[in-house]
Amino acid sequence: MNKKGIIVAAILLVLALGINCFVAAGSKDAKVNDKNLQVVTAPDQKEAMENERFTIAEYVPEDIDGTNVARKGHCEANGYTDVYPATYANDGTAEGTSYWEGPAGQEAILTCDLKESYNIHTIRLSINPAAIWSKRTQTMSISVSDDGENFKEIVPSADYKFDPNTGNTVVIHIDEVKTKYVRLNITKNTGAASGQIGEIEVFSNDK
Amino acid sequence: MSENKKRVGGRIGFVIGCVLIYFFTVGIILGGIKVPATMKKMKLNSEIQNSKVVLYDGPKSLKDATEEDLKFATEEGRDFEIKHCVDTKVLVNGKESYVYDTNVNNTHTWVDSYLPGQERTPITYFDFDGTVEIIVEVPKTDINYVTIRPLKYGIKPEINKKKHTVTFTVDTPDTYTVEFNNNVKRAVHIFANEIEENLPDFDSEDVLYIGPGEWNIENIMLEDNQTLYISGGAVVHGIINANFVKNVKVMGRGIIDGSTFNGWKGRMAKIPLKFDNCTNFSIEGVIALNPNAWVLQSYDSIGGKIKNVKIISSRPNGDGITLQSCNNIQVKNCFVRTWDDSLVVKNYDVNTDGISFDNVQVWTDLAQSMEIGYETNKGNKENSKISNVRFNNITVLHNFHKPVLSIHNADNALVKDISYKNIVVEEATVGKGDGTPELMDIGIVNSGNWSTTMDRGQVENVTIDGFKVLYGNESLPSKIKGYDAEHIIKGVHITGLEIKGKKIKSLEDGEFTVDDKTDDITIK
User: Fold this and answer.
1) Which end of chain B lies in a sparser environment, N or C, as judged by fewer CB atoms within 10 Å?
2) What are phi and psi of A118, to 5 degrees?
C-alpha cells in the first residue's frame, strides 16, 4: 500500500468511527429534563374522607307547639306536574318523590281542607331535605277560608328560602286565626317550573 | 520506482490495506444508512426533552386491584370500587403515571335483572405540551400485536416482547387507546390532556376547590356563578348537579366516581353530571367513571359547553352525553365509552335546537353511538321539533350492538336539519348479543317502550357527508323507513360513504332498505 492508500484508509477510518459514534450517541433514549416535569402529589389517606369544604352542619329543626291539623285533612290544587299530585303534600313525608308540584308556567295554588275549623298559629312548609334539592326561593301568599270559596289573605306575598342546609323547611308564624281551609298561592319558584310543596303542616293548640 | 511510490509492507500490506479500506467503507455505508433515522431520533429526543408534563398521583387510599377484582362478575358479585391498577404500568417520558382500574362492560346483551357482568380496564391521565414518549408495560401479557386508536394518528408502536412493553410517542392532546392482540379486554385508555390554562381564582368565594385525594361528597349542588374545580389526583365519590342556575362551571382533571353507589335498577339514578334548566354552563376536563346509570345529562338548558370530558359507563342505562330539550350546546374533544347510547339528543319538554358534537371519540358497548330519539316529544308539546343537530369529526372506535347512526322519531315531532360530517368508524361489529345489524337506521316509529304521543312525526333534511367504515361485519346494511303517507322521511343526502375501502355510490351498493314512505333519498 502506498502513502495515498494509507491516507485514504485513515480518512475512511475517521469517517466510519465518526458516523458510527454519531449513530450510537444519537440512538440513545432521551433524558427527560425534570424541570419540565410537575407531579401533583396526593395527601396521606387510608380511606375516603369527608371534605371540609362540603361538610354540612347538622340542622336541628324548630320545635313547634300544638298539633299538625293538616295531616288529617285533604289537599287539592289547580293542577300538578308529572306524577306529583296535591295529595302528596300532606301525606306525612317530604322525602323521596312524595311532593306536590304545580302546573308548569302558571300560578300554583294548593288548598288544604282541614276538615274542621281550628285556631291555627304556625305553618311549616317543607320540600325534600336531600342536598340534591338545591337552594330555591318560592314566592307565595297565604289565605284562609271557612267555606272553601271565599278566601282572605292573611300573609301577603313574600319570598321564602328553602335551603337543604336548614332542612329545606320554612316556618311561618301567623297571628292566630280560626279557619277550615288554608291556601298557598305560589307565583314563583327559582328551583323549578312551578311551586313545590313536599309537606304542609298547619299547627293548632286546639284540643 | 521512486521512494515515495514504494509500497509499504509490500504485497501483504497492500492486501491488508484493501481489506481495511473495504471494512471502513462498509462501516461508513452501514453507519450512513442509520444517519437519517438517528437524526430523526435526535430531533424526537430533543422534542421529548423540551416537552412539559404534569403527572397526577392517585389517592393513596385506593386499594390495589387483585386478580379477583379483574374477574367477570356482576356488581353484586365482587367489590365494585375503583381500584389502583397494578398489572399495567404506564410511563410518560420515563416517569410513572398512576393507573386506575375502572369497571367496563364487554357484554352486548340487555339484562332484565339490571346486573350484567362487569370487568375492569386500566385508565391513566396526564397533561403535556410538546411530544411525549409513552411506554405501556403489561408483564402478564404476551404481546403479539398492538393497535393504538384512534387509527388516524397512524401510530406504529415499538413492541418489546421480552419486556412486555409497547413504546410510542404522541404530540397531540387526545385520548389514546392501546389494545393488545386484537382483543378489547384490558384495553388501556390514556387521557393525554393539554396543560391546564385559565385556572379559576381559588381565593374567590365562587370557586369550590377539591384537591387531590379520595373524597366522599354525596351531592354538590352548584349555585349561580359558581365554579367547581376538581384537581387532578382527586377521586370524588358523589354527584354534581346544577338546577335552575346560570354561569356555572365544572373544571379540572379529577375523577367523579360512582362506584360506591349501587346500580340504579330503574329506581334511584345518581347522575355524575346533571345540569337541568341551566343557562350558560360549562363542563371541562373532568373524568366520569362507574356511574350507577347515565352520565352527563342536560335538560331544558340554554347555552352549554362540554369540552374534554372523559366518560366510561358500564351499568344499565349508562347513556354517555344525553341532551334533552336543550338549545345551543357544544360538545367538543370528548371521549365517551358507554354501555348504552353514547351521544343522545331527545325532546322531553321544549324544542331542541343548535346542538353540536365535534371531535368526539366514541366506544359503544351497548346500543347506538349517535342517537336522536326515541323520545322526540316526551313532554307532549304542540309543534315539537328537534333541529340543527350536527355531528362533526366523530371517531367511533368500536360499535358492537346497534346502529352507529340513528334517528328514531318515536313521537309526533319534526326532526329537521340533522348533519353528519367526517364520521370514521374504526370497527363496526354491529349486531352482537341482542343487537341489530344496521349501520344506519333512520325511521319514524311507534315504540311500545318510548313513544308518548299517539300521532307520528316527520324527518326532513338529513345530510351525511363523509362516513367511512374501516373494519366491520361482512354485511353492514342500513335502513330508511317512514311511517305512512303523511309521516315520511324527506331528504336524506349521503356523500362520501365508504365501507371497508369500497366507495358506495348507490343505495343498492350500500345495502340500504328504503321504503315508499320516503322522498328524495340520494347517495353519491
Assistant:
1) N
2) -130, 155
- Quick one: pLDDT at residue A30? 67
Look at residue A31 in the predicted model and tell me its pLDDT.
65
Tell me what the mean pLDDT of segment A75-94 comes to: 95
From chain B, pick out residues whose CB is under 8 angstroms from the CB of A13: 20, 24
Looking at the domain assignment, is residue B231 inside a domain? no
Measured from the Cβ of residue B500, the count of other Cβ atoms closer than 10 Å reads 13
pLDDT digits (tens, 9 = 90+) for B274-284: 999 999 999 99
Contacts for A92 with CB less than 8 Å, ≥ 6 apart? A71, A199
Cβ proximity of B165 and B94 under 8 Å: no
Say if residues B294 and B322 touch (Cβ distance below 8 Å): yes
Average pLDDT for B248-260 = 98
Chain B residues in contact with A50 (beta carbon < 8 A):
215-217
Query: Is B303 domain-assigned?
Result: no
pLDDT higher than threshold 50 for residue B1: no
Q: Which of B164, B194, B224 is the last residue of a domain?
A: B194
Q: Are residues B181 and B75 in the same domain?
A: yes
Look at residues B58, B129, B134 and name the one whose alpha carbon lies nearest to residue B93: B134
Q: How far is residue A52's CA from residue B293's CA, in Å, rounded to a whole number?
A: 28
Inter-chain contact A135–B41, Cβ cutoff 8 Å?
A: no
**Interchain CB contact of A7 with B (< 8 Å):** no
Residue of A nearest to B14 (CA): A1
Q: Does domain A52-204 have CATH number 2.60.120.260?
A: yes
Which residues of A are less than 8 Å from B30 in CB distance? Answer: 20
Q: Mean pLDDT over residues B441-451, rounded? A: 96
CA dist., res. B520 & res. A103, Å (int) = 42
Q: Is the ipTM here above 0.95?
A: no
CA gap A152, A142 in Å, rounded: 8
423-452 of B, contacting A, C-beta below 8 A: none
Max intra-chain CA distance, chain A? 132
